[in-house]
Amino acid sequence: MANASENKTIGSVMVVGAGVAGIQASLDMANAGYYVHLVDNSPSIGGLMAQLDKTFPTNDCAMCVISPFLVEVGRHLNINIISNSELETLEGEAGAFRATLRNNPRYIDAEKCTACGQCRDVCPVTAVNEFDCNLDLRKATYIKYPQAVPLAYKIDRNTCIGCGMCEKVCLAQAIFYDDKVRQTTIEVGAVVLAMGNDVFNPSAFDTYNYANHPNVVTSLEFERILSASGPYKGHLMRPYDRQIPEKIAWMQCVGSRDINRADNSYCSSVCYMYSIKQTLIAKEHAEMPLDTAVFYMDMRTYGKEFDKYYMRAQDGGVRFIRSRVHTIEPAGDGDLKIRYVRESGELEEETFNMVVLAVGLTPSKDAEALAKRIGIDLNAHRYAKTNDLSPVSTSRKGVYVCGTFQGPKDIPQSVMEASAAAAQATQNLSEARWTLTRTKELPPEKDFSGQEPRIGVFVCNCGINIGGVADVPAVREYARTLPNVIHVEDNLFTCSQDTQENIKKVIVEKGINRVVVASCSPRTHEPLFQETIRETGLNRYLFEMANIRDQNTWVHMHNPERATAKAKDLVRMAVAKAAYVEPLQQVILEVKPAVLVVGGGVAGMEAALGVARQGYQAYLVERSNLLGGVAHQLRLTWQGEAVAPYLKELIENVQNHERIQVFLETEVTHTTGTIGNFITTIVSKNGSQKTAVLEHGAAILATGGKEYKPTEYLYGKHPNVLTHFDLDQAITEESGTLKNAKMAVFIQCVGSRTAERPYCSRVCCTHSLKSALTLKKMNPEMKIFIVYRDIRSYGFREDLYKEAREKGVQFVRYDPENPPNLTSDEQNNLSLTVKDHILQRPLEIKPDIVILAAAILANENKKFFEIFKVPTNSDGFLVEAHAKLRPVDFGSEGLFLAGLAHYPKSLDESIAQARAAVSRTMNIVSKKGILVGGVVAAVNSDRCAACLTCVRTCPYHIPRIGEEGYAIIEPAECHGCGICVSECPGKAISLQHFTDEQINAKTDALFSAA
Amino acid sequence: MIVADRKSLNEILDMVKNYNKILVVGCKGCVTVCNVGGLKEVQVLAASLKIGRKKEERPLEVDEKILERQCDPEYIEQLKDVVDNYDAVVSMACGVGPQFLSEAYPNQKFFPAVNTTFYGGAVSHGIWEERCAGCGSCIIHYFDGLCPIARCSKSLLNGTCGGSDRGKCEISKDVDCIWDKIVKKKIAQGRLDDLLPITPAKDWRTARDGGPRKARREELIQNG
């Protein structure tokens, strides 16, 4: 790496923490032209998410969705993973930092280690497995989990007895007992902190008996219990006696919303959803009917599709009991007794087989210490301090934060912030973009067309992983007998650096035009071998792999003869397919270095400004005659920052930026093209009908939302019934009605969580709390009631709830079956009746003003969404590509979303998402060209019956029926999943590299045993 | 389009039980679109028949073919060079296909692999519904585009009948009462009065009741 001279902007960045947020930030920056150093104190990347079983609300397997990201980071030419290391000091300033790292010894050379696992097999030491939350054991030489990246073992010298066995058996000579702590320095232009969080340790809660009773487990322990790769291999059992529980209780808010025992006053934001998920997954795992009960205070299912998930659990028989339990007592035989108070006031006693404590998130001690070392301000809760209007900036310039080190949050919010931090971190580095990144120079591809297949087969011993079970020389000699094979050999480690060089040499010497490697999993190693053969001029698709380790010698280790026979079968199949594989050409399409942003609210403006500040042209299209959207009606952010001055400055910046072109009173009428190359027509609606055609590489849709105009509770009929926006305006205008009011009532969930709109509008509880506190400040004597269903003040917003209670705001809960009733008499006096849940009697309040916490709706844009072919959910909000890991992307490549059009969210969250969208577009427009093609679907138009089957079954909405009357699948957009191929009734579609001919050759080979 | 449903494998195996070499012919028309008789289904059926017969240890030789349509003689003619190479031919087209084939090749034996069910369309992927009964004299404009002939279980012209229950037909809760829909649509459009006159009995001679039908378009018929 080049050394940066004084005052020169450095084109590399450092990400500290390699959980899901750090990974996303690294990928975004590396793909946008920066060299990334990814530092983590763990031996492998992946963070907390790798430990989870499933993720809500889609119930996707956590490891399955994060694993491709781990592999991508591990193989990225421009991401340098520095594992097992800590950031010690950070000198310098934004643009040119000098970071000193402490590299802790691993005692195994990660470069040499092939993860064969011999060292683990011979290790005589037994230690507790922290990855499995101490529910299982491991050896002193270990790897956290099989999908770990870097895929290399580590020796835990705290438990190691130094017997030297591992060193003796390691054929890769990777054991390095004398490894020492080292110190290294790196120079970077910006820093992103993504150190994540710890989970709360409930050992000190003696009343919960966690420390004393094995059947009281934390939610993270329960994740491992449910996990198929966990200590019980996915079998639902309780730790004490490995019995299958029939009754499980979940205790919410353990270590959250508690200043009595836990010292964490905030809400951990994620525990309700993960508990609901755990009840559903546990029920799936249980063979017998499983009784699940969740003891909770407020059901905080405030995110996208969360309330529907909650309802699904209720329909599935999960019991939700609103009660905070004080004590969990042992009841003999490993069971646990719980006493709780029903809402009607009766005391109940129930015995459960197992109790899960829904533990909250806490700031990580290491992260806290690091923040102090490098001079980052923390907030009162010991998380990184940020402002709502600059949600990913820390107190130190050039240092940004994302994920749960900034505050408790779920995965999609962390991923959004990670992209936002990536955008912010690189914003001032654009002059150094692509200066420190590496590229690989490749020779031109050779043309083998018309040549007979000449196949080379390389069989790996994988140390003794394969060779110790199967007879590798026999497999090698068998391969020699197969058709078209002109070269065979076996290697100790086919993946080692020297073997790669040897493979290249042999390919050239013998004129090999197809390569087969029989070794481990293509998941981790196929790209490596493809790269190797590509370096000799062979197209990367002239390659086939046979997995004779993971799917053979590992699972049949006690049956060597049959393992050898199976290895032969697998090699025969791979060779048969290899004879039919064809080179696939990927073409480079030029990219239009501009971004279209639709919607001129805060999200749209932040997006346009972000793009412009990154050095690219932005087109901002707004259908009204005014920039700013609904933010004009908002007075304060939830932390109390004034919106109006921010908005004024933002509008000015957007209007004055040389690289932003603003089109007011303009609508999009047509768009064509694909990622990197869109052509969009816009028409001015101010009477002129002026048309413009814009060329852009990506688009951000930020079409916004609005406040619901209630039809309930006399809204519009009585002057003193207001919505939040009305109240904000009244406060700004210092209205007399407010000054004279002696009593105010807020009614929550007006238009939200109803049959018509079964979602939570997320922001209204916080808005009501904030406004109630403002009213209290204006007039401390004012009596204020908040009539609610659940108070959903997630994260640090809980502070507002606490403060409101302290200031005397009264909270009255109602059931949807008995909603409050608001009437007005002849003198226009308001009267509200609501059944109080404690008194179990109707309560009559005579308020002077009533504020309705009205729902947030997505703006109606049906026609516009159809133009871009982007999907909406049943509530009218745009649907992202993946609810967890791609929260800013659409399924269609090159299109992104931000703001209220995605889901109701607060201003800070909208800003973060807009900046995240900027980062995602930089992955496209900062590149000169993008590679298109490869493993994608191809349509044979003669066979196409235009039946629409592909259009209807594609999960990414890519195929369309073209004007010529047959299906068109753009190679630039196709994800290569093959679903349309298997569904096409006319056999008109084939998946490149997985054609019928190739697959049939493989299966024919399988069944034609030699 | 014409919607069809594949016969069970056992039924088809039984049809061809006496033969050792057959041809399966698909159709690129309606049956491809309704995912019943296109090239994919031809290959699936061919493979299934082979497996079925292999299990009986009486291997069956099966060739696969797809025609543009099996309701035009020109396409049917494309089989002329190969049709006699087989003991029998299985058609995956609608009921028209095996008949056109039989007429063109009187010496060969043809079998239908599908049951032709109705004229309809896919309301979503995998779900088809009947919309037309082919009665020969269309009256849907009187009923706002909803056909009581095809969609009322009794083909009533003056509904609803007493079997209409909360929008469903008495024959099954899965069947909508089309008359309920007709009345609701008329109310929504403010034209309920349209239903006051009694619709007279329909002349069914244009439908199947008048015997097999034929359409002649004199201007299209070429001399000679």
Please tell me about this protein's structure:
The complex is a heterodimer of chains A (1010) and B (224). Chain A folds into 7 domains: 1-104 and 181-196 and 364-440, FAD/NAD(P)-binding domain (3-Layer(bba) Sandwich); 105-179, Alpha-Beta Plaits (2-Layer Sandwich), CATH 3.30.70; 199-362, FAD/NAD(P)-binding domain (3-Layer(bba) Sandwich), CATH 3.50.50; 455-582, Rossmann fold (3-Layer(aba) Sandwich); 590-704 and 859-927, FAD/NAD(P)-binding domain (3-Layer(bba) Sandwich), CATH 3.50.50; 707-855, FAD/NAD(P)-binding domain, CATH 3.50.50.60; 936-991, Alpha-Beta Plaits (2-Layer Sandwich), CATH 3.30.70. In chain A, 26% of the residues lie in helices and 24% in strands. Chain A contains 25 helices and 52 strands. Chain B has 2 domains: 2-118, 3-Layer(aba) Sandwich (Rossmann fold); 134-199, no CATH class. Helix content of chain B is 25%, strand content 23%. Chain B has 7 helices and 10 strands. The mean pLDDT of chain B is 95. The chains are: A alpha/beta (1010), B alpha/beta (224). Chains A and B meet through α23 of A and α3 of B.
Topology:
The complex is a heterodimer of chains A (1010) and B (224).
Chain A: E1 12-16, H1 20-30, E2 35-39, E3 54-55, E4 60-61, H2 62-75, E5 79-82, E6 85-93, E7 96-103, H3 118-122, E8 126-128, E9 137-139, E10 141-142, E11 154-155, H4 165-169, E12 182-188, E13 190-193, E14 197-199, E15 216-218, H5 219-226, E16 247-254, H6 271-285, E17 291-296, H7 306-315, E18 319-322, E19 328-330, E20 336-341, E21 347-352, E22 354-359, E23 361-363, H8 365-374, E24 399-401, H9 411-427, E25 455-460, H10 472-480, E26 485-491, H11 497-510, E27 514-519, H12 522-534, E28 543-547, H13 549-553, H14 560-578, E29 586-590, E30 594-598, H15 602-613, E31 617-621, H16 643-656, E32 660-663, E33 666-674, E34 677-684, E35 691-696, E36 698-701, E37 705-707, E38 721-723, H17 724-732, H18 736-740, E39 743-750, H19 764-778, E40 783-788, H20 798-806, E41 810-813, E42 821-824, E43 830-836, E44 841-845, E45 849-854, E46 856-858, H21 862-868, E47 895-897, H22 907-925, E48 929-933, E49 937-939, H23 949-953, E50 960-961, E51 967-968, H24 979-983, E52 989-991, H25 996-1007
Parallel strand pairs in A: 1-2, 1-13, 2-5, 13-24, 15-22, 16-17, 16-22, 17-18, 25-26, 25-27, 27-28, 30-31, 30-36, 31-32, 36-47, 38-45, 39-40, 39-45, 40-41
Antiparallel strand pairs in A: 3-4, 6-7, 7-12, 8-9, 10-11, 14-23, 19-20, 20-21, 29-48, 33-34, 34-35, 37-46, 42-43, 43-44, 49-52, 50-51
Chain B: E1 2-6, H1 9-15, E2 21-27, H2 30-33, H3 39-55, E3 61-67, H4 73-76, E4 88-91, H5 96-104, E5 110-112, E6 114-124, E7 127-132, H6 148-151, E8 164-165, E9 168-169, E10 172-176, H7 178-188
Parallel strand pairs in B: 2-3, 2-4, 4-5
Antiparallel strand pairs in B: 1-6, 6-7, 8-9, 9-10
